[in-house]
């Protein structure tokens, strides 16, 4: 009896695994095609509000995959696949190309892109980024690259050298999702970065438990000459609290969701709908 049940369970489990594996293989295959067509993968842009300038000052390019049958697939799904099958470099290059074309159209705006650890550790990465900027005639100071805490503090020789090359050329470096990794404040001392982006998990509780932590992060950043951005700001109350604490920039659905290029350009040109009240 028990044996039969066991076999049954195994059969169900096995079938489920088969299906997961098939789906995974299909996504890998489709992602290869998507990058070849160069139209299914494009950047969306999430505006960033500057408290100092009281207006939109920059944006973050976020990769989007419009799958022909399944609609939009989230980066949290396809970025890890791209990393695993070696396509993250092509993907990053496509997002950077899209981002450059926007910077060329909006000369006063700066732009952030996200770099995967695999990109940041790869030998040719800084030169690839800098030559792309040069091709578009864009000042490297207008580009910020968002990296993870572990990359910034990991002390890994390749990424350290690549970060130095990019920063020497004027590119800025930000730590994404700050506070979620394992680094301690003291490590920020010796690191070559320009900005911390305080993770949404802290911002969610800025009026409560997280307030002293966020205050400490902002004060630490200020003492080190770093800029701060709050990620995932969704309410007026959060926005008010963050501005009162001295946060430099705000990003989140309150200001705007990530937008397709045309909608984002309308917003920045003042013809689009402004969704924020700060
Ligand atoms: P991230 O860089 O931390 O980006 C912030 C994510 O939070 C985005 O999700 C954004 O849409 C979402 N978000 C922004 N404001 C709010 C808010 O107010 N509320 C909520 N609930 N969410 C908000 P998205 O676009 O799905 O990207 C997820 C992650 O995928 C990114 O996190 C980034 O780590 C990665 N990613 C996206 N594009 C790229 C890329 O081109 N290259 C690489 N390597 N990674 C990327
Ligand atoms: Mg980011
Ligand atoms: Mg983030
Ligand atoms: Mg994130």
From TrEMBL:
This is Bifunctional diguanylate cyclase/phosphodiesterase. The chain holds residues 447 to 724 of 724 of the full protein. It comes from Rhizobium hidalgonense. Residues 24-272 form the EAL domain.
